[in-house]
Amino acid sequence: MQRITNSASGTHRRTGENYLLTEAEITAYRRDGYLVINDVLTEAEMNPIDPWFDRFAAGEFAETMGRDFCDMSQPYGTPPENFQLVNAMLPSTYRPELAGNTYHRISQAIANQLYPKGTAALDYEQFLAKCPNQQKAEFPMHQDLGYWPKTENTWTATFSLALSDSDLENGCLQVVPGSNNEPELRQHKPKGHDDGASRDDSHTLVIETKPTDKIVYLPVKRGSMTIHDERIVHGSGGNLSPHWRKTYVAAYRDAETIQQERAIGFTHSHNDAVDWSEVIG
Length: 281
Prior knowledge:
- By secondary structure, the protein is α+β, with helices and mostly antiparallel strands.
- The chain has one domain (2-279): q2cbj1_9rhob like domain (Jelly Rolls, Sandwich).
- Helices cover 20% and strands 25% of the residues.
- 38% of the residues are buried.
């Protein structure tokens, strides 16, 4: 087991809302498929996000969200009182007050550094909450690209902002460095497929790991973040702690790629009506 932190990063790297990456970090991201940066948002910038997160996680907007308010560790239709891993997709779609928030602006500035063509745009976002003392509040190992239509340009930078400290006990992100460079995407199947489950039953996909996979754990403190690309194998364990683990995800893709997604009706909403047999190769 290996844990990765980035002690060289911190608030001293920020000028206004621009958090400056080093060339070494950009190179490492492209090589390994992930990056850890610390103290990206200040406590003052985090505080306005917290109440919105808690309202979504409590199901306050569930009536209008449909499947966008769900448990990512269990089948659709699981009663909210039985949730283990709360997922609220596209929060700023349902509450426009969140659009263009400080996290969006800072992560956009970082995505612009990772994607030199300067056409990175926010594709989707989600609030994720692992309930306390829920061993099964876990994300099976997967690659994000396994969830999406295969567009010509697949480049993605997915940011995970820690709204609470994330560590091994509460199920921090774990990655297989370099798996983003494998020539073929691994085969993804719906969770529970052995029992006949389909993607209409559960959004969650799983892969089989390889004996050669070497997992690295990415603990981060509140206000810090991880960034990973679309092909890296990653997941996270359950929450064995008595506290919530809270994460705000924002993913950036090429603007033309986003247009191609939207043209086939794919918005990353769990309510999308997409014929996966036609759009996934």
